[in-house]
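Input set for joint prediction.
Command: fold jointly, output tokens.
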Amino acid sequence: SKQTGYTALDYGFVNTAATRSDITYIDGESGILRYRGYPIDQLAENASFLEVAWLLIYGDLPTEDELADFDERIRRHTLLHEDLKRFFSALPSGAHPMAVLSSATSALSTFYEGKTDPDNPEHVETNIIRLLAKLPVIAAYAHKTSIGQAFLYPDNSLGYVENFLRLNFGVMSEPYEIDPVMARALERLLILHEDHEQNASTSTVRLVGSTGADQFASVSAGIHALSGPLHGGANEAVLQMLGQIRESGESVQRFVERVKNKEDGVKLMGFGHRVYKNYDPRAKIVKQSADEVLDQLGVNDPLLDLAKELEEIALNDEYFQSRNLYPNVDFYTGVIYKAMGFPTRVFTVLFAIGRLPGWLAQWREQNLDNKSKIGRPQQLYTGEPERRYPA
Ligand code: SDX
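tokens >
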């Protein structure tokens, strides 16, 4: 403001007292990410999505029996109430899938009146199962609605990721063949997204949950936060950026110059991070698997080469080096999702499906293990001193 000289930047989220958590560790300088102590690359390589979800929520890797029971309980909850399906036809078919996902998640809670008490451990644990089981179904229905295709019912004989692929790409008129390469590649990507400490959407889930709001309301709020292009929406924005560069015929060098000159606020989407001032370890894994996955899917996408060229130029440019700007998790994921057949507007929905276990784990930690007080971010008042209303 004029009196204090503070800039707009200072009016962002001031660093509140640090949130305590045992779940995820990030070292931004060294580019380290661990879920409950396990390095992200070991989990992405060896674990299943539900195994990592259990680890995040309950603190240790599940035994074989625990995982089998967890998987079975989730399969038995995949059906949506038939009334909820009417919800999708109430929205314009061109509605953005993230808007559908967040609203339908909120609407889901209306089917569980009286069974969403945050102080009832039985309700909390059952709603973890319900959300893990139903969010992928809602996400697939949001995708199907956006392309004008009929919904399929979940098939409980399939695994978590396989069921999700079939709900997205299967059609009523013929059997759907699961591609194991695609299933494993998607599972690895989803694992990379499962948690990430106190990012904007997870902080939103915790803040909403701290008021006593239930898991459905908290997760719905998290989906809204994730949709912004500076956060989860960046994976969609990267593909739009790559597509615009390609269509415009603009050279990569010229685009990078525009970014450096901040022309019309253009940014190199998928680059930079609040915490990582080094290469995002997830981006490293995604980039490594991009070539392999596109190869195995028999897809040759010039946008992948364009992304690599952009990275090469940026990493060797003083503007990006001096600001510690590196590729983040969103830089390469979209090219793989596109190769799998997902529309660009569904990419951030995939981020939400991946992030759900982390949101549920962080909400549960705050709610059950160390019940915290209601969230109240601090403020530094920089406005006018007291003054009198003119007589
Ligand atoms: C995710 O927090 C998490 O953990 C998030 C996430 C998760 O898993 O939950 O990791 C997922 O959201 C990843 C981030 C996805 N967003 C994007 O890719 C959007 C593009 N990135 C930027 O908007 C930005 O880098 C942020 C928002 C990600 C981080 O912003 P910061 O740390 O606040 O950085 P900043 O805005 O203070 O920028 C510092 C400088 C500025 O330049 P100067 O004013 O010093 O001249 O770097 C510049 C910025 O203009 N800058 C960029 C840039 N990012 C920062 N310049 C060009 N392109 C960019 N991408």
